[in-house]
Amino acid sequence: MKERYPENWPQFYTATIQGWNHLMKENIYKDVVVDSLQHLTETNRVRVYAFVIMANHIHIVWQATYGHHLNDVQTSFKKHTSKEFLKLVKTDKIAEIYRVNAVDRNHHFWKRNSLGIELFTEAVFVQKLHYIHENPVRAKECSHAAEYKYSSALFYEHGIDNFDFVTHYNG
Q1: Is the pLDDT confidence value at 140 over 50?
Q2: Which fold has domain 11-158?
């Protein structure tokens, strides 16, 4: 039987907050990202294989499901999280940091041109998985990757999925 190639390869995706600001330092902002990822998986638009949410950026390894395109998913993700971030911004001073004079929006939280790299081999996939999980350790947020709450490291090390949306890359 001939193996069918996927319509969409898994992708290593990085999105950064404008100006590398630490908007997501407070967990309430990280929870917005978690809720959005949960929604995208519940509606069967993506599979999330790994993630980490840092104060000023996120890394995700995800794959669009059949019939969906990652560009559309990314746009939807960034639009939704931006709307939710705006609701949470506590002061006009913080909101002003992200204010833009654009036809389609008043605020812009995510940098344009997020990084997306398709992962064609298991070796590169695993390398990106480790990179994601070690991100909080390198940032000195924790001493061991599985200690960091907003990451899939605990799932891969101990099989504990506190978020209920992570799919193990081995199935």
Answers
A1: yes
A2: Alpha-Beta Plaits (3.30.70)
